[in-house]
Amino acid sequence: MQYEFVLKIVETFVEKVGKALDGTKLSELLKLVSELKIQKTNYTTWNESLGCFLQVMGPEAFFKVLPLHLMDHDMNSLRYAQDSRSYLILVIGKYL
Fold first, then answer.
1. 92: how many CB neighbours lie within 10 A of its CB?
2. Taking residues 28-43, what's their average pLDDT?
3. What is the pTM of this model?
4. Is the dihedral of CA 34, 59, 27, 77 positive or negative?
5. pLDDT at 1 > cutoff 70
6. What is the mean pLDDT of residues 48-64?
7. According to the model, what pLDDT value does residue 89 have?
8. What angle do helix axes 4-17 and 23-34 make, rounded to 10 degrees?
9. DSSP 2-71
């Protein structure tokens, strides 16, 4: 399934009305977007969408929803990136 257009719509929505939304609603939307099963072809668009959330929500609110767990999981695990959310390091570097 292609998420590119959906992610662009979400990103635009968050940019334009994110600050006006109730923090709970924005947090729920972030959680849903973070749990999408993204293919490599849409990874950049997904990161841009997450970065938009980070900028609009601010780091404190963003990491309350998606805390990093870098030291809580075995780095040799095949699921390390998902479980630890280490993929957010690229988002942090680009959008903070």
1. 15
2. 93
3. 0.89
4. positive
5. no
6. 96
7. 95
8. 160
9. --HHHHHHHHHHHHHHGGGS-HHHHHHHHHHHHTS---GGGHHHHHHHHHHHHHHH-HHHHHHHS---TT
- How far is Cα 12 from Cα 26, in angstroms, rounded to an integer? 13
Give the pair of three-digit tokens for residue 34: 């973070």
Tokens of 29: 């939307």
Distance CA 96, CA 92 (A): 5
Tokens of 17: 């009305």
The per-residue pLDDT for 28 is 96
Name 90's Cβ contacts closer than 8 Å, sequence gap at least 6: 47
Instruction: Encode burial over 53-91: b for 16+ CB neighbours within 10 A, e otherwise.
Output: bbebbeeeebeebbeeeeeebeeeeeeeeeebbebbeeb
Residue for token digits 């959008």?
95
Q: Which residues, in sequence order, are CB contacts of 28 under 8 Å at separation 6+?
A: none
For residues 63, 64, 68, 71, the Cα torsion angle rounded to the nearest 10 degrees is: 140
d(CA 77, CA 93): 24
